[in-house]
Write a structure and sequence with these properties.
TIM Barrel; 8-stranded parallel sheet
Length: 351
């Protein structure tokens, strides 16, 4: 059982972040924001995959104006990602954004930050303060001897204090680095010093394969310690892959229960069927099921139903055939080529 740190709660559109709210999965579009059709199409794919909050870059006023049209076509709330130009944050607020992501350190004069704060107050929007290892003020680098958890954390705290100075507290914070250990250390330290909700991620994590591993270790370690309120797996890949990976991280820790939890054995010389192909097909076949079920696909009788006894449903394969079982109880024996269809039918009959 994970004991989550109780943080403050903010609302991003109709989605609550922090406090006792469920941990949410985010992603970011890689379409041109002003290309409304392409952006909406991508977001709908992300929604189908289970994305709960979407962030998109607002690079100019055309992007900001497109937000209103995009908002009409999607179900999940929008975070506008703002860099350097405070006027774009103001325009995003005016065009139905649900939150603003900015780094106060690159906005410029403090009066510009105040303008953004006042707009967010008026439209009742939260601000996510985004800090990463590549955007730390020189004074913190000098004070804390370079890039480390201290310079990242205290840079973030200063940016939060700027917002608080203008009586603004609807804040979430991210403190990302591409180094997994630095990411973990920074979030741990900030969590000790503040109770603002935290958006977790390992920035610039890399490709789908390596990036998912880095993110699972970094994000998963923090979540297991009760730290974190919303996550993004940052991959050089289709954003849908980010959502799939994020949901699996949460499911593996018992922090999300919607959807199928599939377990399968690594195969060995006892395996007499093409288990790898069966598991691939099973993932495709069962991914649309929203039931909170554990399904086991096992290569032999040693691993299933014995070791997979606690699975809700499963397959234990033999020589070109397999046993279908439910909670450890064998239901039927069927040929390899119809194993998945028969398993799905058993599940459907019980629904």
């Amino acid at each position: 059982m994970i004991n989550r740190k109780l943080t403050k709660k903010v609302k991003v559109g109709n989605v609550e972040v922090g406090g006792n709210s469920p941990i949410t999965v985010q992603s970011m579009t890689n379409t041109n924001t002003k290309d409304v059709k392409s952006t909406v199409s991508q977001i709908k794919r992300l929604e189908e995959a289970g994305c709960e909050i979407i962030r998109m870059a607002v690079n100019d006023l055309e992007d900001a104006k497109a937000l209103r049209e995009i908002k009409k076509e999607i179900r999940i709330p929008i975070i506008s990602d703002i860099q350097f130009d405070y006027k774009l944050a103001l325009a995003a607020c005016e065009n139905d954004s649900d939150a603003i992501r900015l780094n106060p350190g690159n906005i410029g004069a403090e009066w510009k930050i105040k303008e953004v704060v006042e707009a967010c107050k008026f439209y009742n929007l939260p601000i996510r303060v985004g800090v990463n290892s590549g955007s730390i003020k020189q004074e913190f680098l000098d004070k804390y001897n370079g890039v480390n958890e201290n310079s990242i954390t205290y840079s973030g705290l200063e940016e939060v204090e700027i917002l608080e100075k203008y009586n603004f507290k609807d804040i979430a914070v991210s403190l990302k680095a591409s180094n997994v250990n630095l990411t973990i250390a920074s979030y741990r330290k900030f969590s000790e010093l503040s109770d603002y909700p935290l958006h977790l991620g390992v920035t610039e994590a890399g490709t789908n394969y390596k990036g998912t591993i880095k993110s699972a270790i970094g994000i998963g370690t923090l979540l297991a310690e009760g730290i974190g309120d919303t996550i993004r797996v940052s991959l050089t890949s289709d954003p849908v892959d980010e959502v799939i990976a994020g949901r699996e991280i949460l499911k593996s820790l018992g922090l999300k229960t919607e959807g199928i939890d599939m377990i399968s054995c690594p195969t060995c010389a006892r395996t007499k069927v093409d288990l790898i192909e069966i598991v691939k097909k099973a993932e495709d076949k069962f991914e649309k099921l929203n039931d909170n079920l554990t399904i086991a696909i096992m290569g032999c009788a040693v691993n299933g139903p014995g070791e997979a006894r606690e699975a809700d449903y499963g397959i234990a394969c033999g020589n070109k055939e397999g046993l279908i079982f439910k909670k450890g109880e064998i239901i039927k024996k069927v040929p390899e080529e119809v194993l998945l269809e028969e398993l799905l039918q058993v599940i459907e009959n019980d629904r």
